[in-house]
Amino acid sequence: MKKELLSPAGDPEAGYAALYYGADAVYLGLKHFSARATATNFDEEALDEFVGFAHSRGKKVYAAVNTLVTEAELPQLLNSLDICSRCRIDAVILQDLGVARVIREKYPELELHASTQMAVHNKQGALALQKLGFSRVVLARELSLAEIKDIASIPGLETEAFIHGALCYSYSGMCLFSSLECGRSANRGKCLYPCRSEFEGESGSRHYFSMKDMALKEDILQMPVTSLKIEGRKKNALYVAAVTDYYRRILDGRGCDGEREENIKQIFSRPWSSFHLRGKDKTVVEPDFVGHRGLSAGHIEQILKGRMILHIRHDIARHDGIQIDVPGEEKPFGFSLQSMQVKGKSVFEAKAGEEVMIFLPPQTPRLEKGMKVYLASSSRVKGAYDYKKPKPGEFRQRCPIDVSVTVEAEKITASANGFTASAEGEFAAANDPEKVKSAVEAAFAKTGDTRLSLQKIEVRNPQERFVPLSKLNELRRELYAKIVPQTAVSTLPVTGVPAATTEPARWIIRTDNPNCLAKIDLKQVDEIVCILKPGFESECLNRLPKNKLRLALPALSRSPLQFAETVRRLLAGGYKKWEIGNWWGLEMLPDKGIDLSFDTSLYMLNTQAVEAAKEIGASRVTLSVEDSIENMKKIAETASLPVVMPVYQDAPLFTSAVCIRANPCKSCPKGEKWLKLRHNGKEYMALSKDCQTVLLAGRPLCFAAEAGAVSAAFYRADFVYRPYTPEAAAAVWNKICRFEDVSGCAKGNLISGRDF
Predict the structure, then answer these.
(1) What pTM did the predictor assign?
(2) How far is CA 85 from CA 5, 153, 198, 281, in A?
(3) Engineering a disulfide at 113: which of 93, 117, 355, 575 sits with its beta carbon 3.0 to 4.6 angstroms away?
């Protein structure tokens, strides 16, 4: 099977560079709803020309419309999807279930690709999305080669896997860190990367969550996926060209190229890693420094006043960028090389192996012998990846049309593509009918900026009448305006009747430890959601009222089949109410005969997503904890399913497959371990358990004081992750059930007014 090499394009320059250096397909973002909102991205004109150019060479273009969409943004979403359709995008990469529903119903010509933000980390999740109409799933980066092979074996489903670029500490789509702590959501394309900051922890001040870059190199040849994806929509054309060229050579059987690998590291690179491709790896974090290093150029051998001496490992030239690791500094010290000497003589360029004296700029920090020096920017490399791109307008896509024009004594009519326009008048006999025909042909050949291309024109003038040029131009403009859509032409798919409730407040408690509920009067609670764990013992449910119980599958499981027997046994025992937090749960539960709830991690930020959930079989949905109260109100009032509003929760800022413990895996005591962290005066708690890390903020979220303004069918208190005693859980419950805030809690984006 020929693998597709898929390259990123944060702007048109990067896109053309990717195609020139061998990409089979390019993925890019539009001006809205792109998970790389700060990239330049593409407007309609640039997108149209780029797709036309790519298609002329047999290449594909995918548009990333992969952020969560709020209710107020749905009309703008239609504009973006109209552009995708008009520009003949090959597929749309998306996260939001509402976006998927709109495309299925209004844009059937567009294929659906499930973004890595949908957290597809097992075969069951991929199967579920295939049934929902997705032709391709982008796999979670955390998967091993064996897991990738398992998912790729699904008949009729395309798979896409990342092979190179930046890594997130969290599973994509399962990170709320930037949103809840900084007001800028990764799920909305605005991540501020707080995970790359320095934290105080048990190993001192370190970058506990700052990941190395992924670089799978020749391992890609073992991956039986449809598409091999390079990360980097925020990188420039030079980087995209270099990485695409490197992997194109590997796929073409020419192997890894050492010089090209060094070029990539010089352009931009953190230390490289294969992540978890070959199994769990604890060396995937770079704890001491963040950001771009460059190519290792040697180490300082001698420090003089304003100068340093070293034997360089690579050619360097004046104006190249130099970086030096300085202990105690988060980022390396960098400067542009302005002056250097070899053997006492000033030179413009120095060769690898030579002893070089480099003159340092003013205000250089204290440097010492032995410090590592990097070549972070090279004029030679910048000139090594030239590429060609088409002339503006050369590949603008046009719609072919055949026009028919009929001239009568008092009316002239033109029609094409099922549209008709006419102009009335008194048209006298023509002195030269052939000139009239030529004038009609010339007038309608002027398609201008309409994206139309006249293929054939038929002129009927049986009475041989003369038509003024002004009338012909007027008629052409009217006809072509009807054919070409000027603005969004689609409407949103219809949703069901709102399920808003006027009943008294009903409450849900959700927990992973039923014992913590011992001091709560469960008569006040309408439902108890109990999360299943590996090795779950159903006896713990006996202490709870069965008629109020709902069982929940965890949002993340790398081995979902471990729950199969437990689920079968509980279903047989009469437990018909269930909750899922990831798409794989749909495969574990029967299609009918159960009451199914969607948890917060199946993000419901618009009514189209709620309607899609209803069509899947959900009986209710849960609002997102990163949402604003205004959007929550809209959904609660207009959604066709009952909604649950989370009121109290230790929201997981992220969930990671990377273990934070300092000990080696072989000597790990296993079990649960809590680690305290601090950053900028804030406290955090990291839970290490079952080879995963969950980060919690020092303060829980509490929306109790505001919840009454949201007409939700249910309000929910979560006692999950943190080890609540029965007394502590009861103290929280006694406050929030009266819609009173618990002191010392956070509000996230609820009332901040920020566009998260």
Answers:
(1) 0.92
(2) 23, 31, 44, 42
(3) 93
